Amino acid sequence: MALTDVWFLLIAILWTGYFVLEGFDFGVGALLRILGRDDTDRRVMINTIGPVWDGNEVWLIVAGGATFAAFPEWYATLFSGFYLALLLILVALIGRGVAFEYRGKVDTAQWRARWDWVIVVCSVVPALLWGVAFGNIVGGVPLDADHEFVGGLVTLLTPYALLGGVTTLLLFVLHGAVFLSLKTDGDIRARARGLAVRIGAGAVPVAAAFLLWTWLDHGADLVTAVLALVAAAALVGGILATRAGREGWGFTLTAGTIVAATAFLFTALYPDVMPSTIDPAFSLTTTNAASTPYTLTIMTWVAAIMTPIVLCYQAWTYWVFRRRISRTHIPAAPVPAEEHA
Question: What contacts 76, CB < 8 A, 6 or more positions away?
Fold first, then answer.
């Protein structure tokens, strides 16, 4: 296997890890004002992801850095062509992090409610836009002979890309609801389980439509067909397992859905990394977008050494914070000074 193919595979793995881990973060945030009936419920929800959400974003940073180093032409075209969309995602990720930190700084219901809505919006926006972005990457964008993007923001809002956005949004919200049913206890666990089943009823037909459209237009072969079927089966199985109260299996299967779906998209994309809708000859591929062999060789050695360390550390983090959380674990909010008078 050529080093260009190795790094295409590694980048696909990094994006897969990001979508699986950050996907339930987005889902929990999006459901904050829906599932959380009061401030204690919402604090329980935030605490389920509190120890891990920032670590999950490391996968995005590494995926972006790996793309920059291994396929600089792809990185340049992607980040210049998708500038506004990626800027919105960046602002949303920053806003969400700020909201997590500032939500509890002032002990008033109005203050917390404002930051809750920031968390909701800043979770929904990237969950939607990542699907739009990858819909355009797989579906193709207008690239000229110099591999420069010659469209605009409206160019990216195709029906196929928008369907991709709705698909990722529903899958991540479903993934988050299943995660909440796995990580909480009591009434909120039961409500998260019921909500996951209802969300799943909408996610199944939308995801099936997106997978079928992608397969027919961009990757109609045996491998992508198998991956699409695995994703569909895992999605249905995850919903049924959650409904039956087997949240561990439900979470494993919804994670498997995201893994299979992401693998399906990257397999349909290969050997292109950014197809051109103007002329296939103008497309960026793993060959013409890659760095030099020397650069890829050094990167491969660094990745071989550092990746196992990072994976072990993150696995240890999840093991430490594996327990369920309930309302009894949330300390009572301090009584404002004026109420003591």
Answer: none
Residue recorded with tokens 């949330």: 330
Please answer whether residues 169 and 305 qualify as being in contact, where contact means their C-beta atoms are separated by less than 8 angstroms: no
Q: What angle do CA 97, 167, 71 make, to 5 degrees?
A: 70
Six token digits for residue 247: 């949240």
Q: Cα dist. 299→87, 112, 277, 303, 304 in Å? A: 27, 44, 31, 6, 9
- Which alpha helices (DSSP H) does the chain contain, by range? 3-30, 32-35, 39-49, 53-56, 58-70, 72-81, 83-102, 109-139, 159-183, 187-218, 222-243, 247-269, 293-320
Q: How far is CA 236 from the centre of its chain?
A: 19
φ, ψ at 320 (rounded to 5°):
-60, -40
Q: For 72-102, what is each residue's pLDDT tens digit?
A: 999 999 999 999 999 999 999 999 999 999 9
Question: What is residue 106's DSSP assignment?
Answer: S
CA dihedral 93, 35, 164, 98 (to 10 degrees): 0
Nearest to 322 by CA among 29, 48, 58: 48
Domain boundary assignment for the chain: 3-329
Q: Are 147 and 77 in contact (CB under 8 A)?
A: yes
Q: Model pTM greater than 0.85?
A: yes
| Dist. CA 286–CA 272, nearest whole Å | 6
Report the C-alpha gap between 110 and 138 in whole angstroms: 43
Query: Could you give the 3-state DSSP secondary structure of residue 36?
Result: coil
d(CA 207, CA 261): 9
